[in-house]
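Aim 2 progress update. The chain analyzed this quarter is reproduced below.
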Amino acid sequence: QVQLVESGGGLVQAGGSLRLSCTASGTIGTINAMGWYRQAPGKQRDLVALIYSTGRTLYADSVKDRFTISRDGAKNTLYLQMNSLKPEDTSAYYCLMVTLQNYWGQGTQVTVSS
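Predicted structure tokens:
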């Protein structure tokens, strides 16, 4: 059974930084992509950043030049370095792993105070 465990969320002041981690375990198979999504209360879950097995990355316009997605294949761990955080980045952040099916983590809360 595949499990994704996120960590690194918390409370930070505007302008600060956080690094999220997501570690996958279980019988994983071939990973096509991994990514981060976020969802605020009452809103839909939106893409933040995605990294493909080729290394190509994709970012939401709102986080370009502030967030960096990376992956350590040996550790099956995905990262999201978040810099210059803004109050509008406040949300629950979810890790996604795309294999033959999609797997989601349980989410980690990021709160940015003004």
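The two ends are 40 Å apart (CA to CA). The chain has a mean pLDDT of 96. These observations will guide the mutagenesis experiments scheduled for the next reporting period.
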